[in-house]
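Sorry to interrupt, but I need a hand with the structure work. I would like you to pick a protein and set down its sequence and fold. Please put the record directly below this note.
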Amino acid sequence: MEDISKTMAEASAQMEKALEHLDHELLKLRTGKANTAIVTDLIVEYYGAPTPLPQVANVQIADARTIVIQPWERNMLGPIERVLINANLGITPANDGEVIRLSVPPLTEERRKDLVKKAKHSGEESKVGVRTARHKALDHIKKAVKEGIPEDEGKRSENELQEMVNKYVEQIDKIVATKEKEIMTV
């Protein structure tokens, strides 16, 4: 019995990670508004060491459509600008010698549809993660039944597991629908 409850807890934790990953991925999608999340994962060469951008510069939002990146050291302007260009964000950095400005352009209808597709794809990836967790847990439950746990206990655990999967899939669908609405709002 302890073994099955441990398996259920592990499955729940894996499903929670799939949700967190989805949230993280959706934060990166531009919605026409400035959001520092689109640059926080970028890695810059800092004295030969790969370093996250927020550790070498102050990243902030100046207004609804502008992200300002102010490096701690002026000599980091070039490397940061190169990383921003290579990241293919769809935004051209403007370097004035002191700070780098990213002006987020308004989204076109075509770009919005592409972003919705990306959001749905991220949702599907998260669902795959949830299903993978379910598959591992089901294998474990079936193995436990073979090793002597009562069959009705195994069936109850399988039903409980399926309810958990349904709950997470429903949450993923809600999150993706919310993001889709946010992207399509002009």
